[in-house]
Amino acid sequence: MSKDSNHDPAPPPGLDKRDWIAGLERGVSIIEAFDDANPRLTASQAGQRTNMTRTAARRYLLTLQHMGYVASDGKLFWLTPRVLRLGQSYLESARLPRVVQPFLQRVAAGTNEIAYLSVMDGDEVVYIARNGPNRSMSTGYVLGARVPAQVTASGMLMLALRSDAELDEWLTTRKLTVFTSHTIASMERMKLELARIRAQGWALSEQQLDLNSRGIAVPLRDRHGTLVGALNITMPMGHESSEDAVARVLPVLRETAQAMRNLI
C-alpha cells in the first residue's frame, strides 16, 4: 500500500479498528517530528519523517497551525508554545506528581540537593516532579525534561528492574550513545552494570551525560510492589567522594520511597 492510499493502515495490535482514529495518530506524529535537530520543517521534510506524502503532511500542519500548535512563514513550519499545554495537562491532572511533591520536599530538605521523580517513556527518562533549595533551582533538569535512560541513575535503575525478557530485548536492539569520556559505551559493560544495579537495588551514575553531574536513584513502588518510577537526586560532583555522597543521600531516598508505598 503506498503512502498516497486513501485507506488507513491496519490498527495497532490490541486495538479494534472501530476504536482507532488514524488521523489522531498522524497528527501527533507530526508534532513529534520536530526536535532539537529539526526545529523547523517543510511539509516535505515532515512527510519524510512521518512516512506521509507531502500533501498529507501539509494538511496536518495547516490544521495544527489553525489550532495554534504550529506557526509558519509559508514554507517552513515550527511548533509554538501552545504545545506545552499538552505536557502541562499531564502535570496538572496526573495524581503521582501531586502525591510525591511533599516527599520530594522532605528529600531536598534532608540533603540540601535537588530531588526528582522520574518515569520511563521509551528509552528516555522524563522528570515529572522536582523540589530543591532555592539556590539550586536554576540548575538540574526542568519539569518535562527528557534524557537518555542509559546515562542517568534513574534510567539505568528502571532499565535494570525490567523483566529478563524486556532487558534482553533492550540490550540486543539498542545502540549506546557516548556523551562524555565516562559514558558506558560497551553493551557488555552496560549489561554488567545493570546486573549490579538490580542486585543492590539502587543506582549511581557519574559524569556520563555531564562531567559535573552525579545522580543517585532508588525505585518508587506502589502498595502492590509495582515499579512506578524512580526517586533520584542530581548533584554537582564537587569535592565529595562517591562513597560520601551515597552514604549521605541514599538512606534519605530509601526512607522516603518506603514511606510513599501505601499512598500510591
TrEMBL record:
Signal peptide interval: none
Gene3D superfamilies for the chain: 3.30.450.40, Winged helix-like DNA-binding domain superfamily/Winged helix DNA-binding domain
One Gene Ontology molecular-function label: DNA-binding transcription factor activity
BP GO terms, sorted: negative regulation of DNA-templated transcription
Listed name of the protein: 4-hydroxyphenylpyruvate dioxygenase
PANTHER family xref list: HELIX-TURN-HELIX TRANSCRIPTIONAL REGULATOR, ICLR FAMILY, TRANSCRIPTIONAL REGULATOR
Annotated keywords: Dioxygenase, DNA-binding, Oxidoreductase, Pyruvate, Transcription, Transcription regulation
Annotated ranges, domain HTH iclR-type: 21-88
InterPro entries from the UniProt entry: GAF-like_dom_sf (IPR029016), HTH_MetabolicPath_Reg (IPR050707), Tscrpt_reg_IclR_C (IPR014757), Tscrpt_reg_IclR_N (IPR005471), WH-like_DNA-bd_sf (IPR036388), WH_DNA-bd_sf (IPR036390)
Sequence ranges assigned to domain IclR-ED in this UniProt record: 82-264
